[in-house]
Write the structure tokens for this entry.
Amino acid sequence: MNVPIRATPIRASPIRATIVGSLPKPGWLAEPGILQAAWKVPPADLAEAWADATRLCVASQVAAGLDVVTDGEQRRRHYVWGFLDGIAGVDTETLALKPTRGQRFRKETPVARLIGEPEWRGPVLVEPLLAVRALTDRPVKVTLPGPMTLVDSLLDEVGRGSVADLAMIFADLLNCEAKALAAAGAAVVQFDEPCFNIHLDAARDWGIVALQRASAGAGTTTGVHICYGYGGQEVTDWKAANRDWSHYEHSLALVAGTDIDQVSIETAAAGVDIGVLELLRGKDVLLGVVDVGTERVETANEVADRLRRGLDHVAPERLSACTDCGLVLRSRAAAVGKMRALVEGAALVNRELAF
Ligand code: ZN
């Protein structure tokens, strides 16, 4: 029997706290600290293990006091594969190497392969959504890969068309999934599009159209997450050496012209000029105020300082304290600490705002 995890009522506060999506998995489920880690549990026991891991990570979010929770992507070996696992014509088991993300972080990455006609044969992520909804009455966000990032993470072995054509095909499949998630009670459906900060011209030429197609008429709050990548070593090395942080001037300007409701961006670990938030007037902003590339836990005051800077450009009722990206690579202790810092930092600023 599922006993809902209940905590204090959802705060009626302007600045809310949430995370981008993923959380670390328990060490008994998958090797911590690496992406695409294999399952440690035999296939026959996986469903039960996923349910247990989801229960733990929902409990940790509720205990920390997050206003909007996720399933922590506990059932996904990779954030793109969580959706692709359920799509006919795609092989997420026998992977291929492909240059991805414009080779910004590495030469090649293991990716799923397109081996037939891609087809949506029914909801892929509704079951994990319902599992979370049985555990808490907090609003639940579900993350999907954005179509542009999805096709960047897929090797087309059947020659289905140009990469733009393929993105439109997957946008339609993602749209089916988004509508199913909305019907099943998802408070937010978020599309993860880190490629919008890499392939700037392609994002303008067709990526933004594909994103709109994926989110159109979803029937719930829609969001997009655009970042500079997870907190792995190769990504943190790139960030340390990078001097050009102008990508958001292009990507956020594109999103501003859509009817996407929420935009999640990275500012803690990147040298982004926060003035770029001016482009997002009228949107809800999930401000990345917690660095996912370090085990060091931010203090509530650090989070509050970053939120105050955000308030120069975003109305409090449109602002959420958020992580820069997923926390999948961090230790569970650091993830819990960072979630608490988000909540406590938001509470500090809310008190100043007299809420
Ligand atoms: Zn990210």
About this structure: The beta strands are 16-17, 87-98, 109-120, 141-145, 154-156, 188-192, 221-226, 262-266, 284-290, 319-323. The mean pLDDT is 94. The first strand starts at residue 16 and ends at 17. DSSP finds ten helices and ten strands in the chain.
